[in-house]
């Protein structure tokens, strides 16, 4: 357990505990250079839980790609025995939870402006394939006390239980989130994606306006959670336009909600109309809620509709071990596995049922069967007309629905991370593809390859209209990379720790979500295969192709003299001695490859690896052999490639050079 004054790694000391979450505690820490930061420390009882440890460790790698003004910045990670800690900026103004508790309902304009900044943060994260999955006032921090806050003072934190969206929205085997803020699809289907974050932020906006969440009220935590599935949010006395936005944010069907980017834009357009309107009075939670016309379950999750309804309406004393534990309070984050339920044999069910005198035709089962029969007949009749030749000629084109998919590739050795998001708009018949490039320690630049395939395997390469970069078709005769449907993005410049985006409008029309997911994945896989092909020769697309750097020196050098150091690039096909990355002492301009992977000479440094036998000048670029030694090495750092070291070499005097 952490204690005040205790060391955290070699660079920090614990201050005071300032909060706790589902899997960790938050402490202030002081760094060796005197800065006050915050550290999230994994709880000791979770240290031996591989899934939680993996989730905790992943938080840092996720946030390193989320360098945005509305997201808390991660600075370091400490691994010390069984202790794991993520060090991040300390945000001193408190959380929105403090504001809701102390100030009560906010003026509508203030509430809308805060929500817009949260949506800004989420839009940035979603564009990089990251879903937060636990938006609530506790995880929204302020850089200043509420009375002093203005535009730009909101920070979203705690992406510790976030999902990196990969090939598809992750199907969960358990519930992760906070009952009062859980999207209905997480309860009913066991799944949630970026639009689940939109829903949770809608709940938060409702709370900022009303002083309470929409489904808070009597009952167990599961009862509160299930209201997201079964009940309409109670109307609050706000402007009709604002209530209309809230209804869209809180739609049961994720496809009816706006994206985070759209929600932010809508709220900003609305904000000026709310100027001067006073906050509403804090209301009590209702005793009863209006049910929706039908339950929102579409794909079965861990429980059926009947199971959910029975659990939600049962008195607490009658709930058995099959009920999921959702946490100590409706606004507390939970990370709980859903219980595994064994199917009861039908014969056992029959023996356990008591005789029922109700005629079969009046039972619920009979009514459901009758209703199903009616629907089947209607479907058959409709199918007959739709499939007939005349109906096919007269029927209008089916209006599709908007589809979206996200995918993030693992970080490359150069520090490049590529994430892709695709949105299909039926009205335009096009997919809007956004490619995000993020850099870690070093700036990255130059030319990048992106493959945009056809929708089906044998389709021709689609034309694409690009925005955000100078783009041309990849020419295998020039680049050496022979791939179909390849595009060359030129003049890309990514700052260290930053990111840039390029967008393409692609005339393809996926039939469903599975088709869009497969198309986005095929483009990513084709790009990776082309840039990591061992048969490719040459130096094209170095940021995507470079796998390593070798530091080479002569086997024997004479003192005192400059040491010749050659940095050799390593591609998928092996070391490339014909095209060195850098040679020291240098002459002329640095190679374009060096500029691409580390910003030029400023991202390159050499160091003595043999205890003073070498002298390195102030620039860190020229090394001189000073002392005789039978074995010496030189170390190097090249952008994201650190801890590089040469093979051992000997240093001798001029008198002994001929021996």
Label the overall shape.
Answer: globular
**How many DSSP-defined strands?**
33
Task: Return the CATH class of the largest domain.
Answer: Mainly Alpha
CATH architecture of the largest domain, by name, is Orthogonal Bundle
Q: Could you name the ranges where pLDDT drops below 50 across 5 or more consecutive residues? A: 162-175, 293-305, 316-329, 334-371, 373-399
What portion of residues is helical?
A: 25-40%
Roughly how many Å apart are the termini?
A: 63 Å
CATH topology of the largest domain: Transferase(Phosphotransferase), domain 1
Count of discrete alpha- or pi-helical segments spanning 4 or more residues: 16
Strand order of the largest sheet: 1-2-3-4-6-5
For the residues shown, what is the average pLDDT? Answer: 79
CATH superfamily of the largest domain: Transferase(Phosphotransferase) domain 1
- Rg on CA atoms, Å: 30 Å
- Total separate domains: 4
The structure class reads alpha+beta
Q: Which percent range describes the beta-strand content?
A: 25-35%
Largest sheet: 6 strands, antiparallel
Word description of this protein:
- With 659 residues, the chain is of the alpha+beta class.
- The chain has four domains: 7-89, Phosphorylase Kinase, domain 1 (2-Layer Sandwich), CATH 3.30.200.20; 96-337, Transferase(Phosphotransferase) domain 1 (Transferase(Phosphotransferase), domain 1, Orthogonal Bundle), CATH 1.10.510.10; 403-536, Immunoglobulin-like; 546-653, Immunoglobulin-like (Sandwich).
- The chain contains 16 helices and 33 strands.
- A six-stranded antiparallel sheet has the order 1-2-3-4-6-5, covered by helices on one side. The protein has a five-stranded antiparallel sheet with strand order 13-14-15-20-17, with helices on one face.
- A hairpin with a 3-residue loop joins β1 and β2 (12-20).
- α3 (108-127) runs antiparallel to α8 (260-270) and α7 (240-249) runs antiparallel to α8.
- It is globular.
- The protein starts with 6 loop residues before the first strand and ends in a 6-residue tail after the last strand.
- Mean pLDDT is 79; it is low at 162-175, 293-305, 316-329, 334-371 and 373-399.
């Amino acid at each position: 357990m952490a204690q005040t004054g205790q060391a955290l790694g070699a660079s920090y000391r614990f201050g005071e505990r300032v909060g706790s979450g589902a899997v960790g505690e938050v402490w202030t820490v002081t760094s060796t250079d005197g800065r006050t930061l915050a550290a999230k420390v994994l709880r000791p009882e979770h240290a031996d839980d591989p899934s939680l440890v993996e989730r905790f460790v992943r938080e840092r790698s996720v946030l390193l790609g989320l360098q945005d003004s509305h997201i808390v910045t991660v600075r370091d990670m400490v691994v010390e025995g069984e202790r794991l800690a993520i060090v991040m900026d300390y945000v001193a103004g408190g959380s929105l939870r403090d504001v809701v508790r102390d100030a009560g309902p906010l003026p509508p304009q203030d509430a809308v402006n805060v929500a817009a900044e949260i949506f800004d943060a989420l839009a940035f994260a979603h564009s990089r394939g990251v879903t937060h999955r636990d938006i609530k006032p506790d995880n929204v921090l302020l850089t200043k006390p509420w009375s002093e806050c203005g535009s730009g003072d909101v920070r979203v934190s705690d992406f510790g239980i976030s999902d990196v969206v990969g090939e598809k929205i992750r199907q969960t085997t358990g519930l992760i989130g906070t009952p009062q803020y859980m999207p209905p699809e997480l309860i009913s289907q066991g799944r949630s994606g970026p639009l689940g974050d939109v829903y949770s932020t809608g709940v938060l906006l409702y709370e900022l306006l009303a002083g309470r969440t929409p489904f808070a009220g009597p009952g167990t935590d599961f009862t509160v959670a299930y209201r997201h599935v079964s009940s309409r949010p109670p109307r609050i006395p706000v402007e009709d336009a604002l209530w209309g936005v809230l209804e869209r944010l809180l739609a049961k069907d994720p496809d009816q909600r706006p994206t985070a980017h759209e929600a932010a834009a809508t709220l900003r357009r609305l904000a000026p109309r709310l100027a001067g309107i006073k906050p509403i009075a804090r209301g009590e939670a209702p005793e009863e809620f209006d049910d929706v016309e039908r339950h929102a379950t579409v794909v079965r999750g861990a429980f059926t509709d009947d199971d959910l309804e029975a659990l939600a309406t049962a008195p607490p004393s009658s709930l058995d071990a099959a009920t999921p534990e959702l946490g100590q309070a409706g606004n507390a984050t939970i990370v709980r596995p859903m219980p595994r339920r064994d199917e009861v044999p039908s014969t056992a069910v029959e023996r356990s049922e008591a005789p029922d005198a109700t005629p079969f035709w009046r039972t619920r089962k009979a009514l459901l069967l009758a209703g199903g029969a009616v629907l089947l007949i209607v479907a058959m009749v409709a199918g007959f007309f739709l499939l007939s030749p005349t109906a096919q000629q007269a029927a209008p084109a089916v209006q599709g629905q908007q589809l979206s998919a996200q995918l993030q590739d693992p970080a490359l050795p150069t520090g490049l991370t590529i994430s892709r998001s695709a949105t299909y708009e039926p009205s335009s018949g096009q997919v809007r593809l956004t490619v995000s490039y993020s850099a870690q320690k070093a700036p990255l630049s130059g030319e990048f390859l992106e493959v945009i395939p056809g929708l089906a395997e044998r389709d021709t390469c689609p034309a694409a209209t690009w925005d955000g970069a100078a783009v041309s078709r990849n020419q295998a005769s020039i680049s050496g990379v022979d791939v179909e449907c390849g595009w060359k993005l030129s003049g890309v410049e990514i700052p260290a720790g930053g990111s840039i985006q390029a967008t393409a409008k692609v005339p393809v029309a996926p039939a469903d979500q599975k088709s869009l997911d497969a198309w986005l994945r095929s483009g990513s896989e084709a790009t990776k295969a082309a840039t990591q092909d061992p048969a490719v020769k040459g130096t094209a697309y170095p940021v995507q192709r470079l796998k390593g750097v070798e530091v080479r020196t002569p086997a024997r050098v004479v003192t005192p003299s400059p040491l010749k150091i050659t940095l050799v690039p390593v591609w998928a096909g092996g070391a490339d001695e014909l095209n060195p990355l850098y040679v020291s002492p240098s002459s002329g301009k640095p190679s374009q490859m060096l500029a691409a992977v580390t910003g030029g000479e400023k991202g390159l440094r050499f160091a003595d690896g043999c205890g003073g036998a070498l002298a390195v000048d102030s620039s860190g670029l020229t090394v001189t052999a000073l002392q005789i030694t039978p074995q010496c090495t030189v170390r190097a750092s090249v952008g994201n490639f650190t801890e590089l070291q040469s093979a051992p070499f000997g240093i001798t005097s001029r008198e002994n050079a001929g021996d």
